[in-house]
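Database export, one record per block. Field names are fixed; values are copied verbatim from the stored entry.
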Amino acid sequence: MFVILRDILIREQVQICHGHQATSNVTHIALFHARTLGIPTVYTDHSLFGFDDAACIHINKVLKCMLADVQHVICVSNTNKENLILRAAIRPQDVSVIPNAVDTSRFKPAEFSPPAGDRLTIVVISRMTYRKGVDLLVDIIPTICKLYPHTHWVIGGDGPKLLDLLQMVERSKLHDRVELLGRVEHAEVCRVLRRGQIFLNCSLTEAFCIALIEAASCGLAVVSTNVGGVPEVLPPSLVRLADPRADTLSDSLCRAIDEIDTGRDVHAVHRAVTQMYSWDIVASRTEKVYESVLMSAKLDLVQRIKVYLTCGSFGGFLAAIFVVIDHILAIVFDYIIPRQSIEIMPDFR
């Protein structure tokens, strides 16, 4: 894979290698080889991991080694930043917080609201997994349907926990009250959101929750669990937060139903979300990170070895060996496939 990545990086005249996701093998391999070739690197983290189970411990050890000599790290929330600094032993000054952005031009309220009727629609769009709080949703839906006979549920998403929802609908005889859409393509998310007045998020852990921004941008009242970086996403005026328990989340949802204001200016809410999460602002802040990375000093082989040796007696020693091997391979490839023999892509600008 080093040969392929080397060819791409040289041919495309890559100046910065930017990777995402802690569990992506391609990300870590690309960043590792890019540093060997002297290309500055940036990593963006999107997830929260714990410290008490085998899978998280393994990922944390991998991150500690793989991010040891990455020039800069971007996190999507302050909670995400604190979590990553503890997990990967990164210096706080090497981490910036830049939230995700949403193309709010695609997530707009409906031009003409449907006539106010007796039915109130609650929308849920999520992966059907334990981490997304589907077990809470299974407990909440029958309770809300019993208390508010005029409520209707539109649920989009697919995953292993979808079966639990199907069983709940069958058990509670809510076929006419709960509409399960299954997998929803991203291009269709806005259309689904526009069908409702309230958006519910039941996640048990979130570094950031872009679904809340999309729902608020479409003018929906938002109810969510108070976990991870969720409190940083929207101001209190646009979201109701509750502890990740069925009873507290049901209470917040009940208050949202009771206080739903059909006459509120959803377009003003959309404008407010647009100002908070503009791609122009996110791009500008990311560009500043790139500029700082380009000006930062690059580590030579000896410095990289010293950095990796601080990552643990066994793991650090193993990583240092890989660094030496990678540098040897880079020299071999420079001899076998000289840089001059690789055709450079023309600059179409």
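Remark 1: The chain has a mean pLDDT of 89.
Remark 2: The beta strands are 17-20, 41-45, 72-75, 95-97, 120-125, 151-156, 178-182, 198-201, 221-225, 239-242.
End of record.
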